[in-house]
Every structure is written in structure tokens, then in C-alpha cells.
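Handoff note, outgoing to incoming analyst
You'll be picking up this chain. Sequence as last confirmed:
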Amino acid sequence: MSYPLGDFRLDIVSDGTFRLDGGAMFGVVPRVLWERVYPPDERNRIRLGLNTLLIRTPEANVLVDTGIGTKWTDRELDMYGIAHETTAPASLRALGLDVDDIDVVICTHLHFDHAGGNTVRAEDGEVVATFPRARYVVQRGELETARNPHERERASYMPDNWEPLVASGQLETVVNETEVVPGIRVFPVRGHNDWTQLVLAESRGDRAVFFADIIPTSRHLRPAWVMGYDLYPVELLERKKELLSRAVAENWVCVFEHDHETPMAHIRETDGKLSAEAVRDVPAD
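Most recent structure output, in case you need it:
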């Protein structure tokens, strides 16, 4: 999936798919409702995308999140249903780029399914940066949380996904809303956890937003449909209303990180109901 945004170009860079419990992905929403839009497998898991986003600007190649990565045991591969139909580096190669071509990696947060591809295990067993030339950008509060996590999200943080970057000097922390490169800003939205940052790309008046786990799939457009994984569901509900209202009014290109069928869409409102209208693939000339 490729789409022009002013002077920028957006490309979905897939790291494959994985599976999580459907009930956890929809929180208090009864199964009889969510299974109509997201049928589960025999283990009650739903198939989710691992969509990262490449933003090519005149100044830099920016990758938003890195997927789940490859540092997994066979037991974990089965538990999470990790299916690397492709990987983020392989998807980049299909676009004519290599890991050395990435200038900036923006980490929305450091949970394993978003930051697992930050690093890779080398042949000698050492864990090193997947993108050796890139600076990795994360909220300072998120790094502090990852190092001292609440027990509710402790299992989601794995130090191998960021500590090698601290050691190499590649991890850069920011505080609150920040312009990372010209035209690309990050801003934290409390709800999923304390310090998830969304990414806003803007060029020539066109805007795109990468929603991370604030709105993980197009099936989560209803404000009250939040995940069981979310630490602050009531606060998240209110922030979703604000963001979705802007998405409709300003015609944002919306990127859903975990939607393997509709990774990029415009949000439309008809008779008070929201729907995702998939953007059409517009390859570069």
C-alpha cells in the first residue's frame, strides 16, 4: 500500500501478522458483537497486522514502529501466532530500500509488538540495532515506564528491544509534542498507557496520522470499543472522540497498525456512524 501525501510518500511496511485474544482486543464489548466484525480462531484469537509506516520526505526516510521482530522462541511464535509472511526489512527491500536507508525510527511506544523489530540478534548472539544508521525517537516518559513498568503491562516490555540502542547512543528521548523532522510531529495520547505517542505527517495541507494502539484497527472506531489492554479506558474513550472528530473534519489519512485488511483509510461519518474508507493504492511513478 503506497499513497502520496503532498511532497511526502507513505508506504505500509509489513512485518507480517500475529494473533491475540479477541476478548482482550475488545475489552468489555461482548463477544457476540465483536466476533461479527472480527471472527476468532479456535483458540479465541484474532489475526492482526503488524503494519509499520515508511514516510519518505525530501529530508529523510522515517519508519514509524518496527513490528514484532524475529527474536522469538518456538513456544512464543506459537503462543502469539506470529506469522512472518514478510518482515519489515524484507518489505523495505521490496520498495528498493535497505535497513541502512532509514534515517529515523519513531517508536510510538515500547511494547513488544511495536518495538520488537528495533533490534535483531546477530550471528554471534549479540542484540544490535536493526537500522544501524537511524536515530530512534521515543517519549522520555515511555522509556522510564519501560524500565520500571506497572505490573499490568510488565509482560509487554522486553529490554532487548531498547537497551542496545541506549548503549549505541541511537535512542533519543523527547518530551511531549515535538517535530522530529520537518513536517513530522509526535504527540503523546494517554489512554492505552501513559506515554504512547501518535505521529502526524503534514505536507502541503494534507495530513496523515499513525494511530498505534489508540485505534489499533478500523473495527475500533466506536469510541467505547477499547481494548482490555488499555490502562485508562475512560480517558481513552474521550480522546478517541476528539481525534476521530478531527480525522473526519480534516480528512486525515489514518493508519491502523494492527489492521491486516485495511491498514490505511479515510474516516467518514454518515448519520452519526463512523466508517473506514480504504485509500486506494497509488504507486510512485
